[in-house]
Amino acid sequence: IAIVTGANSGLGFGICERLLLQLSQPVPSDSTPQAFAHLLDTGAPSSHEQPLPTGLTLILACRSRERALEARSHLLVLLEAELLRRRRNSEQEEYGRKFLESLVLDFIPLDLSSVDGVFAFCDTVNKTYPYISHIFCNAGTGSFGGIDWIGAIVQMCTHPLDAVTSPTFKIQHSGVMSQDDLGWVWQCNVFGHYLMVRTLKKSLEASPIRPSRVLWISSHQALAETYDPEDWQLIKASQSYEASKYQTELLALALNHATATGTLSTGSSSTRHFIAAPGIVVSSMFYQWIGPIMHVLFILTLYIARLCGSEDHPVKAVKGAVSATHAALAPLSLL
Q: What predicted TM-score, i.e. pTM, was given to this entire model?
């Protein structure tokens, strides 16, 4: 039983799609060892690690009911198309059909910019489901105000790969506050997720799939130099989005240390926390600032970066989701 925040578009939708495609086959490729796995000194798999589940309840946690239901329909179409492609392998197709029959795609409204909204979401989850095995903390936003076109041209001409990996020409507003009088970007990207994870702590601990896992989605733009610990709500930050992603990584590392060692009252050995970065994928985040023509050119630059050998540009969200699904599905001994 998994929760994906911001599931209706972008990387969140890609994570949902990849989970369906992976779990609808007997041996998900994302659960298998990576090339460097033999270098890991993690010992044998833990005795309490269990096989992957054969079914899935996926909770689409979004603000818009309309967009969530549209995403739900699209996911079912994509899964059906994948099962049709597996016709040559009757065993895989049969497994996938059984998976589809038991699949549950639910929508629960979630507004991370509202403390009351997060509590309402968690209350519904706790009352509806016996446990939660995975949470993908994906939803994110930024107080963007446009593009510094001169800066964009300069960076594209001098450091083109950096320009499409860690752009420095995004204009961001400072001082934006939420309805709860908290830093808006901080609350949406960091605190809202933290509050949700803490409130669902007992549901995570109740998971029969142990350990339950929380996947914190980071970014290549999680830059330490953008974060000032004195401004931890990122109210004064000129690059609040980048700072929020860096703070997310600090938070995930601290929580995982606590849960792995049981040294803090927030810790529980039955839940682990991981950071997953998707690389650079197509997003509609800047669409309103660049328009359709520049958006197409932006996509082309991502493909050019990929053709030039960049491993940081999977372009498609379903491919960018592989880091999150691998961290969710692979045995701990492979991570």
A: 0.90
